[in-house]
Design goal:
29% of the residues lie in helices and 26% in strands. With 263 residues, the protein is an alpha+beta fold. The chain has two domains: 105 residues, Gyrase A, domain 2 (2-Layer Sandwich); 128 residues, no CATH class. It has a seven-stranded mixed β-sheet with strand order 3-4-2-1-9-12-11. A six-stranded antiparallel β-sheet has the order 5-8-13-10-6-7, with no helix packed on it. Strand 6 and strand 7 form a beta hairpin. The protein is elongated, with a radius of gyration of 23 Å.
Length: 263
């Protein structure tokens, strides 16, 4: 999975644009007279990058950032973000990405954007998040790949500078990396992947077989909100905050297992 570009990338590009005066002069849109209808608050008290699931499979992204260490003209950022979204939709002949809300508090900027589905999210943000029905094999593969890398690191560290004879004398067998049982022995970890429940209990992925479960896989650091659904499990690259929320650590592939709720 590639690094998450998201709305933050657009903000950074706008900052560069404004800083070097490369985008030309822009004027704020004139306010139209009359009362505005109250807007729905999608952002609320959220202060961390968050992805919220809706029951219909759409997602809402809340991108949060603080630009206190830079100086640039904030006046047209909202309109520029809307333009980026409009350009994306026009280019792809869809209306899959929708601007929802913009919030500015000093140097702190928060933006809410809705995506029709995970495919639209990935295409707009340049990511490859996976959102699908729970699949124990996929989580197992992630875990097995991590175990192999860990075992490789351990053996290579022990084998550094040793000849073949010295390796044999030290009992270091590099061919062990093709044997899952030996990899588990080298790393001191079980061969079967486990996920953590909200109470901290570890459950083997093979013991979970509820057909209603969904899973989100990402290697970025985010807060995940299951909306009206519930977070049931997460692997060792994150933690469950409460029944609706989980946080990933961005240090590996996080697998969040959850249920979809009706909106």
């Amino acid at each position: 999975m590639s690094a998450r570009k998201s709305i933050r990338f657009i903000l950074i590009m706008l900052f560069i644009c404004f800083s070097f005066a490369a985008c030309g002069d822009k004027k704020d849109e004139e306010e139209k007279p009359g009362k505005k209808a109250p807007e729905k608050d999608y952002i609320g008290q959220i202060t961390e990058d968050t992805i919220k699931m809706n029951g219909d499979g759409s997602l809402i992204e809340i991108a949060c950032d603080d630009y206190s260490d830079v100086t640039f003209d904030y006046s047209s950022i909202e309109n520029d973000i809307k333009k980026e979204i409009d350009d994306f939709n026009q280019k792809n002949g869809t209306s899959d990405v929708s601007f929802l809300q913009f919030s500015k508090d000093g140097s702190k900027i928060r933006v809410a954007v809705r995506y029709l589905n995970i495919e639209a999210y990935n295409k707009f943000n340049g990511t490859d998040y996976s959102l699908e029905i729970y699949d124990a094999k996929k989580i197992q593969n992630i875990y097995s790949d991590e175990l192999l890398k860990e075992a490789e690191g351990i053996l290579n560290s022990k084998a550094e500078g040793l000849s073949e004879g010295e390796l044999a004398e030290a009992g270091i067998d590099l061919s062990a990396l093709s044997d899952p049982a030996k990899i588990a022995e080298i790393t001191g970890r079980p061969t079967t992947a486990v996920v953590k429940a909200a109470d901290g209990k570890e459950v083997p992925v093979t013991d979970i077989n509820d057909p209603s479960y969904m899973m989100l896989i990402t290697n970025t650091e985010i807060t995940f909100d299951a909306g009206n659904g519930e977070v049931r499990y997460i692997n060792d690259h994150g933690s469950i905050v409460n029944e609706n929320t989980a946080k990933t650590d961005g240090k590996g592939y996080s697998a969040i297992v959850f249920t979809l709720g009706l909106d």
